[in-house]
Write a structure and sequence with these properties.
Layout (H helix, E strand, L loop, with lengths): L5 E6 L5 E9 L2 E8 H9 L4 E2 L9 E8 L2 E8 L2 E8 L8 E7 L1 E9 L2 E10 L44 H12 L5 E2 L8 H7 L4 H4 L1 H11 L14 E2 L19 E2 L2 H6 L14 H6 L7 H14 L9 H14 L24 E5 L6 E5 L4 E2 L5 E2 L1 H7 E4 L4 E4 L5 E4 L4 E4 L3 E5 L6 E5 L11 E2 L3 H7 L12 H4 L8 E2 L8
Parallel strand pairs: 7-11
Antiparallel strand pairs: 1-2, 2-3, 4-5, 5-6, 6-9, 7-8, 9-10, 12-13, 14-15, 16-17, 18-19, 20-21, 22-23, 24-25
Length: about 500
């Protein structure tokens, strides 16, 4: 396991400082040196960082909180009259853009390994200045109000459609704000649990809060100031800080339901996406006296940092990276994307209606009116609308193709966060931690059983020495976690003597 690896700072014969990882196997020492500056750079990305609520006038970042490979960003946007795309269903030809007033919008986003995992959105009639301020429900579709697949209240239905790994952190905040700004089309054809307007209607709020036409008329007559009246909005009640998956009414189920405050929303247990396993969030374990931190996680981060480090440090200039990204965006030629960020162009009256087709969705069985450029296909030639494709079809790394998750051959590899087609792979679980490892056999389908030798990553990467599986197996998740290494299949065993 990683606890068997010794880390030390050494001065080499070239008179340079390195971080050395050493492990003894069969009385032979295996040593790996990494530049100390490169190690510092990588380990810093796992560091504990918690700003708390920062002073803010208007729009901007309220808090940045991070530990390990998880980061929480809280953003506030000042009251504004916005344009919101609103359709009755996916690809609705009669969808409209409404001009409506909104109060302060509070967004809480979760990044894991540098990518957006999920986002929650709330209203507030006042700027957030205190941890005790309550949050209010959104009056928009696609938002968790009554509980949806375990996600936290306020959860937004945002697709995982971009890789942010190589973006500088400031650009990730920009992209996060863009994703939550309303640029992506809302539609009413969703689960009742994620329907803010009907939730407001069920709770007897005025017509202009839950009907987009009346909302636009109210904005046209009264402008912006009316949204700052707290009586216009419904405060969120939860069972307690760690049970905030939906709105809880004062009932036998939750006789002591309490208002959800910004502090509870940030420090409590919540799922940022269906498969969010960070419960509680790492940074919250450091913040709350009622939680205990597993020190093995730090050993894990130390090992990952050492593995990601290089022999010679490479400087990274975030300012230059931002300039390059802005230039690329400026000169980018608009192209169609399999995962468009901004929804559909629903107000272009010159659009040729002949470019829209009706397809039977293989997931819901419903008829969907979809633009020809926004039909998505899996490897079995099934046609999907955008939302059904994004929710139910996954990319299998080993065969470079898309498959429906209902396919029994689709397998999720937890330690790498990827999907594979198991008919073109051999797999083996680590007897120590249960991690599933795999080796690719594509394009040849597996017809016989192979052995995968789950070995120590140092020996695989540095010394090319492999342990006999009968002597003992040490998987890379136990000894040196990394997404970039797989197990070994059908390789000859070289003895380390």
């Amino acid at each position: 396991m990683s606890s068997n690896i010794e880390y030390s700072i050494k001065n080499t014969t070239e008179n340079s400082l390195v971080v050395r990882a050493s492990i003894n196997s069969f009385n032979v020492d295996h040593v790996t040196d990494k530049d100390i500056v490169s190690f510092y750079r990588n380990f810093s990305s796992y560091a504990l960082f918690d700003t708390g609520l920062m002073p803010l006038n208007g729009s901007g970042v309220l808090a940045i909180r991070s530990a390990g490979n998880h980061t929480q960003i809280t953003f506030q946007h000042e009251p504004q009259i916005n344009h919101i795309n609103w359709g009755q269903s996916e690809g609705d030809l009669n969808a409209k853009t409404y001009t409506v007033a909104q109060p302060y919008r509070i967004w809480i986003g979760d990044l894991v390994d540098g990518n957006l995992l999920g986002a929650r959105m709330f209203y507030s009639p006042y700027p957030i200045t205190s941890p005790e301020q309550p949050l209010y429900h959104l009056n928009l579709p696609n938002t968790n109000c009554k509980g949806y697949r375990g996600t936290g209240v306020g959860w937004q239905c945002l697709y995982h459609n971009a890789d942010w790994t190589n973006l500088p952190f400031n650009e990730k905040i920009v992209r996060f704000a863009e994703r939550c700004s309303g640029v992506e089309t809302y539609n009413d054809a969703n689960m009742s649990e994620t329907d803010g307007p009907r939730f407001y209607r069920e709770n007897n709020f005025p017509l202009h809060v839950w009907d987009p036409i009346a909302w636009q008329e109210k904005t046209s007559v009264d402008g912006l100031n009316w949204v700052l009246d707290s009586s216009q909005w419904m405060p969120i009640f939860v069972k307690d800080q760690d049970n905030q998956d939906r709105h809880y009414y004062d009932s036998a189920e939750s006789p002591n339901a309490v208002p959800l405050t910004i502090q509870m929303a940030m420090l409590g247990n919540y799922k940022a996406y269906y498969h969010d396993e960070n419960m509680p969030k790492p940074v919250n374990i450091f913040s709350r006296s009622d939680l205990n931190f597993d020190s093995n996680k730090i050993t894990n981060w130390l090992a990952r940092s050492h593995h990601s480090s290089t022999l010679i440090d490479k400087p990274v200039d975030s300012f230059e990276l931002s300039k390059e990204l802005r230039l690329k965006d400026f000169f980018k030629t608009p192209t169609s994307s399999a995962f468009p960020l901004g929804g559909q162009d629903i107000d272009d009256n010159s659009e040729d209606e002949n470019q829209y087709v009706t397809l039977i969705c293989p997931i819901t069985g419903n008829n969907c009116d979809v633009h020809e450029s926004e039909i998505f296909n899996d490897s079995e030639s099934n046609n999907y609308c955008e939302s059904c494709f994004s929710e139910n079809v996954v990319y299998c790394e080993n065969v470079d193709n898309y498959y429906n998750t209902s396919n029994q051959s689709v397998l999720f590899i937890d330690n790498e966060c990827i999907y594979i087609h198991k008919d073109y792979a051999v797999t083996e679980s680590c007897p120590n931690c249960g991690t599933l490892h795999w080796e690719n056999t594509y394009p040849t389908m597996v017809t016989e059983t192979f052995d995968i030798h789950v070995v120590n990553a140092f020996e695989r990467l540095q010394k090319k020495v492999f342990l006999d599986s009968n002597i003992g197996k040490i998987c890379i998740t136990c000894s040196l976690p990394t997404n970039g290494i797989k197990s070994i299949s059908n390789l000859s065993i070289e003895q380390p003597f």
